[in-house]
Design brief:
CATH architecture of one domain: 3-Layer(aba) Sandwich
Radius of gyration: 33 Å
Shape: elongated
CATH superfamily of one domain: Calcium-transporting ATPase, cytoplasmic domain N
Structural class: alpha+beta
Number of strands: 26
Distance between the termini: 42 Å
Strand content: 15-25%
CATH class of one domain: Alpha Beta
Length: 750
């Protein structure tokens, strides 16, 4: 039925949908595509989709998916219909679905191919008509999908075109030769070619499925049901019915249904499938937990804070699918060659036929005449041995394996260009807080000198209390996601502060936050900023505050100043610990010939202190940088012909991450940082930076080996076939083996 629909769609042009590209929003969707047999099919699907207004499509042959960037007004049905009109099947992939790599039809086709093909080959030398009778069902029915695909793609030939032409030519000639006795029959060729092709595609499908096993494992983690509390009663509901704010029960040995906060109970949680960290994490009330993590030993109650596509698991899965659907720059050459490969091979095959028929066969046989049988055999061999499949699989299969294996280790490769850039990196720029350090900030000192308030109006100064100052800090920082803000908010809350009404809230990345806090009798403009950010925007600092800033910086601590209507009246000092593996990471980078730099918005003293602990020279430290200044540092290095790796975690790093040649975001960081980065480390360990570079380097090496083999195979194989040194059956076996070799070689990526 689906096939009839596909054919019908070919006959009827899809209606045009008027889209104003200047006013539309582009959205990305991923579709599973069935029926692709070689890289020429990739070109067909992309060409068909890219003909739609505002659409950019990228097909991944290995994962059998297409990544479509299209106007949101464009219905998915139109995209699916367009794919079907090109001769292929398509379904939209939901958040919890992966590519349909396991093709049951390939197994069924293989069984029938063996049932008819093996007896046909066995009887071809003795009982020609029996062999033809056995081959006929194989040609007409079992191989019909191949012929149908060749017919559908007659204007842009694919690998199916070569197989279809070769098998039909051999079968037709066998009937003629058997009936007339003129020449040799090639029934075993027709049967053998199809048998080898179908076997190769079955093995290829199995191998591609294995290559995508890591993604499949991620997808299998999605919970199907969850136990929620309804009026104190435990109720089992489908996960789709879970809503934000629901409280749900997680029993020992069960997976956590979605992202949330523990509100009751104590346990340890295994995040290894998501972050790559093998050590379980202890959780208690107030702890954040990730959906799909395994609850080890305690009963806990969790409040849902993220559901559906907003969860950490969904985000990881989306990034992996995006990576597998995208194309690496190194693949462009292979795609260009594949697009013209089949037509060229077809012409070469025809030319080979005439060359043998009119010249070579007679020359070899001493001028005794022409052999139509030999000429056809050589031409068929050329058709059969040519294989753009290996060329098309060389890059995407390796990318599928790398992205899947990386995800299982907490390394999410989002953009394929990382493969080619990893080896070229010579500068690594690190943010400080949350990147080189744990990001778990703690408030050390809180300084609130009464003398500082005297610059305010007397009525206001007399009314201000320490509790009001802490409430103002809590109100502003509660709306901020920076680690320092979280520390100040936690400290203020622990000391009895309350969240007050807030208006005109503004977050200034790199400098701080501000907003009007409503105390009832007045609503002052409150700012919490770094000392450097307020130097030119506030009244002179109180001596006690100036002294506190100097002392904190001498200890390598971060300083935040609370400003009340342009007057600095309070000071908070915060500090965190250097990550345990930070020094080892910097050492490993140096061993690779990569120069590390520390570029931070924090003060010079704190930056220099952290740099000395991890092994970054003081000369490679740039402090007091705003987001635009971080961006400028990256751009300056790029202008000096440096290949820059940026590693960060905060909103203030987003611009620099986007501009760097290669960027890595810590998974514990902000969404803006993660969204800007090429690679995301889902765990806390900084050595993931080295693991990412190593994975990218190895993947690129595997891709180059694959491409080298694919090119060499065709460069060597086609001339050998043209010379008549191979039979079509051997050619079919070589063709299947070439694709399988590329796929299995990619499985070596670890």
């Amino acid at each position: 039925m689906a096939e009839d629909i596909s054919i019908d769609l070919m006959r009827h042009r899809q209606p045009e949908i008027a889209i104003d590209l200047a006013k539309t929003t582009l959205v990305t969707t991923t579709y599973s595509v069935t029926g692709m047999t070689c890289s020429s099919c990739v070109a067909s699907v992309e060409r068909s989709l890219n003909s739609l207004t505002g659409v950019r499509a990228s097909v991944n042959f290995a994962s059998e998916t297409v990544h479509v960037l299209a106007p949101e007004e464009l219905p998915t049905d139109v995209i699916i219909s367009k794919i079907k009109s090109a001769g292929y099947g398509a379904i939209l992939l939901a958040d919890s679905q992966g590519p349909a790599l396991a093709n049951k039809k390939s197994k069924r086709a293989l069984i029938w191919a063996i049932a008819f093909g093996v007896p046909a080959i066995a009887t071809s030398m003795m009982m020609s008509w029996l062999a033809i009778a056995l081959t006929a069902p194989l040609i007409l029915f079992v191989a019909w999908p191949i012929h149908r695909a060749a017919i559908r793609n007659i204007t842009h030939p694919t690998m199916d075109t070569l197989i279809s032409l070769g098998s039909i030519a051999a079968f037709t000639w066998s009937i003629y030769a058997t009936a007339t006795g003129d020449g040799d029959a090639y029934t075993e060729v027709a049967a053998g070619v199809l048998l080898f092709v179908i076997l190769g595609r079955f093995l290829e499908s199995r191998a591609k499925h294995r290559a995508s096993s890591a993604l499949t494992s991620l997808l299998s983690l999605h919970a199907k049901e969850v136990i929620v509390l309804r009026d104190g009663v435990e109720v089992l509901i489908p996960i789709e019915h879970l809503i934000l704010g629901d409280e749900f029960v997680v029993k020992p040995g069960a997976r956590i249904a979605t992202d949330g906060i523990v509100i009751s109970g104590n346990s340890s949680v295994d995040n290894s499938m998501l972050t790559g960290e093998s050590v379980p994490m202890d959780v208690s009330p107030g702890s954040h937990v990730i959906g799909a993590s395994m609850n080890n030993n305690g009963r806990i109650i969790v409040k849902a804070t993220r559901i559906g596509s907003d969860t950490e698991l969904a985000r990881i899965t989306a990034m992996v699918v995006e990576a597998q659907s995208a194309k690496a720059p190194i693949q462009r050459l292979a795609d260009r060659i594949s697009a013209v490969f089949v037509p060229i091979v077809t012409l070469v095959s025809i030319g080979t036929f005439f060359l043998w028929y009119y010249y070579l066969d007679a020359a070899i046989n001493g001028g005794e005449g022409r052999s139509l049988s030999t000429s056809i055999s050589v031409a068929i061999t050329v058709l059969v041995i040519a294989c753009p499949c290996a060329l098309g699989l060389a890059t995407p299969v390796a990318l599928v394996v790398a992205s899947g294996r990386g995800a299982s280790r907490g390394i999410v490769l989002r953009k394929p260009h990382v493969l080619e850039l990893a080896r070229a990196v010579n500068i690594a720029i690190f943010d400080k807080t949350g990147t080189l350090t744990t990001g778990v900030m703690k408030v050390g000192d809180v300084l609130i000198p009464t003398s500082a308030q005297q610059q305010l109006e007397k009525e206001v100064s007399a009314a201000i209390t320490e509790q009001m100052i802490l409430s103002a800090a809590l109100t502003l920082e509660n709306a901020n996601d920076h680690p320092i803000a979280k520390a100040i908010a936690s400290h203020a809350s622990a000391h009895g502060a309350k969240i007050l009404p807030l208006t005109n809230f503004t977050q200034n990345p790199g400098s701080g936050v501000e907003g009007k806090v409503d105390f009832g009798q007045f609503s002052p403009l409150i700012q919490i900023s770094t000392p450097d950010a307020i130097t030119n925007s506030s009244a002179p600092l109180d001596p006690q505050i100036s002294e506190g800033i100097a002392e904190a910086r001498s200890r390598g601590e971060s300083v935040s100043v609370l400003i009340w209507d342009s007057v600095a009246i309070a000071l908070f000092t915060t500090s965190d610990e250097v990550k345990a593996d930070a020094k080892a990471t910097i050492s490993a980078l140096n061993a690779r010939g990569i120069t590390p730099w520390l570029v931070t918005g924090d003060n010079q003293e704190s930056a220099a202190h952290i740099a000395s602990l991890v092994g970054i020279p003081a000369s490679n430290v740039i402090a007091n940088t705003l987001p635009d200044q971080k961006l400028r540092v990256v751009e300056d290095f790029k202008r000096d012909s440096k290949t820059v790796l940026m590693v960060g975690d905060g909103i203030n790093d987003a611009a620099a991450l986007a501009s760097a040649n290669l960027s890595i975001a810590m998974g514990t960081g902000t969404d803006s940082a993660i969204g800007s980065a090429d690679i995301t480390l889902m765990g806390k360990d900084l050595m993931g930076v080295i693991g990412s570079l190593a994975l990218a380097t190895k993947t690129l090496r595997i891709i180059k080996i694959n491409l080298g083999w694919a090119f060499a195979y065709n460069v060597i194989g086609i001339p050998i076939a043209m010379a008549g040194a191979l039979t079509p059956m051997y050619a079919a076996g070589a063709m299947a083996a070439s694709s399988l070799l590329v796929v299995t070689n990619s499985l070596r990526i670890r």
